[in-house]
Structures are given as structure tokens and as C-alpha cells.
Amino acid sequence: MTDNPTVLTEGLQKSYGGKRALVGLDLRVDAGTVHGVLGPNGAGKTTAVRILSTLLRPDGGQARVLGLDVVRQADALRARIGLTGQYAAVDERLTGLENLEMFGRLYRLRSRVARARAVELLERFELAESAGRQARTYSGGMRRRLDLAASLIINPAVLFLDEPTTGLDPRSRSAMWRVIADLVRDGTTVLLTTQYLEEADRLAHRISVVDGGRVIARGTPNELKSQVGGDRLDIVVGGDAAEDVQAARAVLARFGSGAATADGETRRVSVPVPGASVLSDVVRGLDELGVPISDVALHRPSLDDVFLAMTGRASAGSETPPARAGGDGRGDTGNPDDRDDRDDRDDRDDRDDKDDRDDKDDKDDKDMVTI
Ligand SMILES: Nc1ncnc2c1ncn2[C@@H]1O[C@H](COP(=O)(O)OP(=O)(O)O)[C@@H](O)[C@H]1O
Ligand SMILES: [Mg+2]
């Protein structure tokens, strides 16, 4: 930690009409690090990013980026930051090269400099071969890379990435992760919002978990996971005796590192455990009591577990998916339709075609933990 954080917000507030999007958000991002802002749809991530990148004025609280006040010194700040929004800002009708040249010109680079920078970035993001093709022919992953390239035209000291991989297929997602990791290696400070535990885990030095417009937990990925007790042990009790489920719960509570939960209907009993070593103790304990077991599973905590532990309720995205209702949906996808509906209300209505694209791309999300 340093005394001059690159991003510092204190008590940041923002409402849209009567809807409170941020209710006192405190964030701190140290120079040269990746900070993950992790939270479900509607948590306030995009609102925070838009305020920090000077696109939106807060109603209350303070926000400084690179020591500059995001409201009073917005112009000076704009020249030093990059933003990749939740939806691609590229012009579909222009080629990849033309798009980047256009951004260079927007930043008032001389045309020759803008072109040289565009060519360099296209190389760097493995888009050189497609430089002459209209962006509309690009895949989702290529668009995101082009978008990211556009936000790097001026070599920003701080980069804001709003859900940079939502809707990307796994391969494009890994490519994006590599690109982001490279940027940080070169000294860029990155604030990244995501709904994906795996993404935050992979990229972020520190994470702020946001829900309901405020930070509900913060720490390194490992610290957050250890807050929910390391691994999680799930047992499904066999037979149909209700007392067996309660007996199993008592055994799991004895060996677990946190509260054990039991679902009488699915007969699933679950507890955070300090490590795999307790597995044999638990099985022996159940055996001694004659409790039948039909399934045993040990897994890393999902973001659902983090949320459950931190908020005492399931995360927003887990209310509707059928997989969870079936009792085995832990860590499965959230509801992309909710996401699209909600995002439609955002004040980014200049891209009419985004919904088609996102509906399609969301289908690739199934492999990720979505909250
Ligand atoms: N332009 C807007 N008008 C009205 N409500 C909005 C607008 N943008 C966001 N909201 C609401 O503010 C809350 C936070 O939204 P947002 O910052 O987009 O969250 P996230 O990016 O984490 O999904 C949500 O409840 C959302 O519905
Ligand atoms: Mg958002």
C-alpha cells in the first residue's frame, strides 16, 4: 500500500431518479495493481466506473484518480485515463485501422502519429491481419480487443475496464486476460469490474466485493476465499429419514470451519472446511452414526458461497437459474436476460444493435461462475 492511492473514493453516492445506485462507496486502488470490483448485476459497478472516468457526476462523496478530483479536475484527468466500457465503442462501419486512427484523432494526435499508434496497437492485439476489415465482421473477442486498443491510444496511466470479458467465449477470454496481465506488467494501473470470480481471481491483486452500491468485503482473492472457510464440503444424505439429515449436519458442524447448512428436501448438507483432510473424519463420523451417504463432494468456494457467507443471502444471479433450483447449480450461470433488461436502462443508448450481439454472446458464459 502507498499513501497516494491511484484511485480513492470516499462515501461515493449516486442515484438515478429515486433509484440509489451507490450508497457510500469506498474504494482504494494502489499504483501498478489490478483491482477487481466484483459484484452482481445492479451492484453499481458501471456507475462507479463512469464516475471515476469522469462520464458521470456523483451526488455525494469524493473520488480522486491520480490525485485529481473527478469532478473539479475532470479535463486534466481525461487525458490520463483509458476506459473500455461494458459494450464496444467501436464504429462498426469503419475498419479496425480506421477505428483506432479515429480515436487517435479524437485525442488530437497528428494524423501520422495516430496512424503509427494504430498500427502498433493492431499488431500488439493480434488484429493486424484484420486491420483492413470493417469492425462489423469481427468476432466478439476481436471487437473487445479493438475496443481495448482504442482505450490505450494515449498510453493511459490508469485503465478502467468494465466487464471486459462478459459474453466472450473461453478462448477470447483467456486472450483478454493475457493482454490485461501484460498491461499491468508494463506499469498500468487497472480497475476492472467483473461478475466472474475466476476472472478476479486470475487478474486482481485485490478485490472489492460490491453489492447494493457499497463495498461489502475487500481483500486479496485468497483472503476472500478464506473468509468463507477455504473448501466446501457437500454431502447428500441417503434414505428418507429426516433425523439422518440433522445428524449429518451435526457431524459436519463438528468438523467444519463455519456454519453447516442442511436442506431437508434435497437432503444436502454443506459446510466450509479447512482442507480436504477432514473428509475422512466426516465420513467416519457419519458411518459411526449409521447415516447413509449418497454423494460427497469437496469444492472450492464459488462466488455464491462468498456471497452467502457475506450477505446471508444468495447472490442476485442465483435466484432464477433452474440449475440451482435443482440443488446442484452452485456456481452455475446467472440469468443473462436479467442483465440485458437492466442494462437497457443504462444511459448508453447509442448502440442499437448491442442487444442482439449480447444475447448471442451470453450463451458462451456457461463455463463461468456468474453471480
Ligand atoms: N441510467 C439509469 N437510470 C436508472 N437506473 C439506473 C441507470 N443506470 C443504472 N441504474 C440502476 O442503478 C443500479 C446500479 O447499476 P449499474 O451501476 O449499472 O450496476 P452494475 O454495473 O453493477 O450492473 C441498478 O439498480 C440499475 O438498475
Ligand atoms: Mg455494469
UniProtKB/TrEMBL annotation:
From its record, what is one biological process in GO terms?
A: doxorubicin transport
Q: Where in the cell is it found?
A: Cell membrane
What membrane topology is given?
Peripheral membrane protein
Q: Where is this region: Disordered?
A: 313-371
Q: Supply the PROSITE patterns for this chain.
A: ABC_TRANSPORTER_1, ABC_TRANSPORTER_2
Gene Ontology MF term list: ATP binding; ATP hydrolysis activity
Q: What is the protein's given name?
A: Daunorubicin resistance ABC transporter ATP-binding subunit
Classification of source organism: Bacteria, Bacillati, Actinomycetota, Actinomycetes, Frankiales
